[in-house]
TrEMBL record:
The keyword Signal is annotated on this UniProt entry: yes
Name the UniProt record assigns to this protein: Alpha-macroglobulin-like TED domain-containing protein
InterPro entries in UniProt: A2M/Complement_sys, Alpha-macroglobulin_TED, Terpenoid_cyclase/PrenylTrfase
One Pfam family per UniProt: TED_complement
Species: Homalodisca liturata
UniProt keyword annotations, A-Z: Signal, Thioester bond
Gene3D superfamilies: 1.50.10.20
Any single GO CC term annotated in Swiss-Prot or TrEMBL for this entry: extracellular space
Domain Alpha-macroglobulin-like TED positions: 2-163
Top-level division of the source organism's lineage: Eukaryota
Amino acid sequence: KRQKKDGSISPCALEASIDNATEMNQKIQTTAETLSTMITIGVESEEDNELVLKARYFLERNIYHVNDGCPLAMMSHALVLSNSELASLAMERLGNVSTNEEGDFGWPRPPENTDWLYEEGVSQTSKPVLTTSVTDYKASLFTLMAYTLKSDLKSAEQVARYLFYRSHVLDRHPELVFTALKAFHLFNSLAVDPHRSLTLSLATSG
């Protein structure tokens, strides 16, 4: 049984090197992913229910013990999905971590890192090819789902725009395609809610 007494779920051998994360971050990501999956497919037994409650309790106890974007985003998504009373606290922390130097959604970078690069041979007046790490992209997908589940359209739109202009990441990392489809399908259901009379728009001026 992979779930420990503290409620955490350890990654299997094939997952042990996930995102080059620390041992604690690996536990948080695996526990959050398992909790989200269990909630999605449905709790069918007392054993399932115990697993869900213990996993949620583990995540709640570690809200202040994680600072990296990906585990925090996955944790926040799982806590929102499982109706945790501490979900808003996790979302507040996620909002602080995912605000870049300009005050917009994004993952802060050291000064020496550039936010974007131009493709070779393309005019400097062309739109830039925005770059991001696979870990940041994955974190953004779970952030999008978390904001969408909270019906926070304003915040979700910022994340969706960030992801849209970095969708080339999916060409190199097809393992994220399913998560991306799920995230944008969920977001689209919020953005085109007939009660809101809104349409999904990812276009920018210029």
